[in-house]
Amino acid sequence: MSDDQTTHARQDAPVFQILKIYTKDVSFENPNAPEIFQGGEG
């Protein structure tokens, strides 16, 4: 019976999702670029 209550509690929990992220003046440094963006195994 406790399993049913646990499942029910999980179904009623609110869902949090990030849909969009807006950024301004962000610096991104990657010493291995562009190799990591070309696919393959690293």
Care to describe what's here?
The protein is mainly α and 42 residues long. It has one domain. It is 26% helix and 0% strand. The protein is built from one helix and no strands. The N and C termini lie far apart (48 Å). The model has no long low-confidence stretch (mean pLDDT 74).
Structure described in brief:
The protein is mostly helical.
Structural key phrases:
single chain; 42 residues; mainly alpha; 1 helix; elongated
Secondary-structure map:
Blueprint: H1 2-12
Alpha carbon gap, first and last residue: 48 Å
Largest sheet: none
Q: Kindly give the count of domains.
A: 1
Question: Can you write the helix and strand succession as a string?
Answer: H
The total beta strand count reads 0
What is the radius of gyration computed over CA atoms, rounded to a whole number of angstroms?
Answer: 21 Å
Q: What structural category characterises the helix and strand content?
A: mainly alpha
Give the overall pLDDT as a whole number. 74
Hey, roughly how much beta strand do the residues contain? under 5%
Low-confidence stretches: none
Estimated helix fraction: 25-40%
